[in-house]
Amino acid sequence: MYISDKGWKFIQSNPNLILHIVKVGISEGRLGVESPS
User: What are the Cα distances from residue 36, in Å, to 25, 26, 30, 31?
Assistant: First the structure.
C-alpha cells in the first residue's frame, strides 16, 4: 500500500486518530462476523 508524504505527515501528527480508526474497523469486523446474518 502506497502512502503519500502528506499521508505520512497526517499519520505522524494524528497517531491516536489512526489507532481509533483501526480499532473501530477491527471491532466492527468482529461484530459483523459474530452476529447472525
Answer: 18, 17, 12, 9
